[in-house]
Design brief:
alpha+beta; 95 residues; 2 helices; 3 strands; chemoattractant activity; single chain; Chemokine_CXC_CS; cytokine; secreted; chemokine activity; 37% helix
């Protein structure tokens, strides 16, 4: 009886310890390799900007290309990307 009580106490403490552990931070960035500095504007269908988050410490700019040509990551620090984002925001606010 005494050993069963010790076992239940130990199991309870173990469960509390495991639940209290912080989850490991897994980096889940969309852009893993080097990013492009520019793309042809005629090929861009959509632009997505992902700010820094708990799962990725980088700002990510992803463009979806027309005709199912896939997605490309843009360098958020390049002049082309910054101008393109400003133009897209200006166009969006005008509409």
């Amino acid at each position: 009886m005494k050993s069963a009580a010790v076992f239940v106490l130990f199991a309870g403490l173990l469960i509390l310890h495991v639940e209290g552990q912080a989850s490991t931070s897994v980096r889940r960035c969309f852009c893993l390799g080097p990013a492009a500095n520019a793309v042809r504007l005629q090929l861009v269908d959509k632009i997505e900007v992902y700010p820094v988050s708990a799962s990725c410490e980088n700002v990510e700019v992803i463009v979806t290309l027309k005709n199912g040509a896939g997605k490309k990551c843009l360098n958020p620090n390049s002049g082309f990307t910054q101008k393109y984002i400003k133009a897209a925001l200006k166009k969006r606010s005008a509409a």
